[in-house]
Amino acid sequence: MNLVIGLLAAIAALTHVYIFVLESFRWTAPGTRRIFGFSEQAAESTRELAYNQGFYNLFLAIVTVVGLALWPAVPAAGVALILAGTGSMAAAALVLVTRDSRKMRAALAQGAVPALAVVLTLFTF
Known about the structure:
elongated, single chain, Putative membrane protein, transmembrane
């Protein structure tokens, strides 16, 4: 079970690093605008907000990766950080979909794997 939790947490972290890159560095690129459903004008006007939001996603990934790194040596700290990172990712996805139900696909993309990691971690420890 630990291997599955570790893989899910790592996938969640990598997904959020990818989101970080899209939001912080590629926000106005045509492919990124298509992914997020923004016009060129809307992307340009929200560029600074997206840049900041991208870093939130990066920090969640970092917390999760540090938890994965600590887990073998300091299990309690590792599990706590994994839960903090993946739990925040899952909660952010929940906020996204409760604010706008049309964002269900995006919420599932960013939140399903972290939510699975949280559930498995809670049932395991």
